[in-house]
Design brief:
Aldehyde Dehydrogenase, Chain A, domain 1; Aldehyde Dehydrogenase, Chain A, domain 2; 40% helix; globular; acyl-CoA dehydrogenase activity
């Protein structure tokens, strides 16, 4: 099957998802009901994957999986003539986080050999099954418990896991991804609407994604209250049991240690230079000039996935509210997956 056929099938899959997302439950057809049941099963298996968050992930994919955007993306690369088997070790921190790797391999005319994350083992196989039905059984992919018989590998894990993976796959062509997080730069001139969009970059998917903001850079005399005032739309996040447990634990630790922090009863801000913050906490630092921020970003670029800012002078930054809406040619860890796949 040529790539053009695969693209058309993927667009049909996207349309199937879009149909589900735009319907009321009383109007569901058999496909809609099956997808709804899959999402609910996934939520039971992993409570972080709420129905709402899974639908947000699907909406984001539907927004980019259309014929013009897919063909524009693929036009940057030459079509592979020799089909290879590509092992994929997928992450499971947010819904469908491994889907980009899967479609990249398929649209590169290779065969994905997929090791699912135990945290995200339901929705992606369902979508591949539907894609295969659209393809009349011609879609080539494998879901396995252990990777064997592959020509290259793309793996995502923690920093500790990555060291093991780098050693284990040292003889194969590979992309090994590590922990990353995202930051936001506040100039002090943002509107309330822009700060409300920033809240989305922090709270969407409970802050579990590498594109979620965990560190803020604030002007020297910036008032914390202004941030809290514009986060209020996410106050219901504390009603999620697992998130609330993290919030209660981290708050108790800070109180016992007599650490200074700012609290609005569902998120804490702590003045800390660290890029990574515990769940329910956002670290921040204050700057005198933006050159200091730029130097910090350069020194820590290997740990930063995304920079959120509407301040001039920060190349490749994304606007507030757009951190979790990457385009098809936005690659994890800034490593061009499609280029890698075209060269194996």
């Amino acid at each position: 099957m040529n790539v053009e056929h695969k693209v058309l099938e993927l667009v049909q899959l996207s349309d199937l998802i879009k149909t589900y997302l735009t319907k009321n439950s009383e109007d569901f057809n058999e496909n809609d009901l099956e997808l709804e049941q899959t999402l609910r099963k996934s939520e039971i298996e992993n409570p972080w994957f709420t129905l709402e968050n899974q639908k947000k992930a699907l909406e984001q994919w539907v927004s980019v999986l259309n014929y013009p955007q897919i063909t524009e993306w693929l036009s940057q690369y030459s079509e592979n003539k020799v089909q290879k088997r590509v092992g994929l070790i997928l992450a499971g921190n947010i819904p469908m986080v491994g889907f980009h790797d899967v479609i990249s391999v398929i649209l590169s005319n290779h065969i994905p050999v997929i090791k699912l994350s135990s945290k995200d083992k339901t929705l992606l196989p369902f979508l591949l099954k539907k894609w295969n039905e659209i393809s009349n059984g011609n879609l080539q992919y494998e879901i396995v418990e252990r990777l064997e018989n592959f020509d290259a590998v793309i793996a995502t894990g923690s920093n500790n896991t990555a060291r093991y993976l780098e050693y284990y796959f040292r003889k194969q062509r590979s992309i090994i991804r590590k922990n990353r997080t995202s930051v936001a730069i506040i100039s002090g001139n943002e509107t309330n609407e822009e700060l409300a969009f920033l809240a989305k970059d922090i709270f969407q998917y409970f802050g579990l994604g590498c594109r979620n903001v965990t560190r803020l850079f604030l002007p020297k005399d910036y008032l914390i209250d202004k941030i809290f005032e514009n986060f209020i739309n996410y106050q219901d996040i504390i009603n999620h049991n697992k998130y609330a447990n993290n919030y209660d634990y981290n708050r108790a630790v800070y109180l016992l240690n007599q650490d200074q922090f700012w609290d609005n009863n569902f998120i804490m801000l702590k003045e800390d230079e660290k890029l990574f913050s515990p769940l329910s906490v956002i670290n921040f630092s204050r700057y005198d000039n933006l050159d200091d921020v730029k130097n910090f970003l350069v020194q820590n670029e290997e740990n930063i996935q995304c920079v959120v800012s509407q301040t001039e002078g920060f190349e490749n930054s994304v606007a507030f509210g757009e951190a979790q809406n990457p385009s098809l040619d936005t690659y994890a860890d800034n490593v061009d997956t499609m280029k890698f796949l075209s060269e194996i």
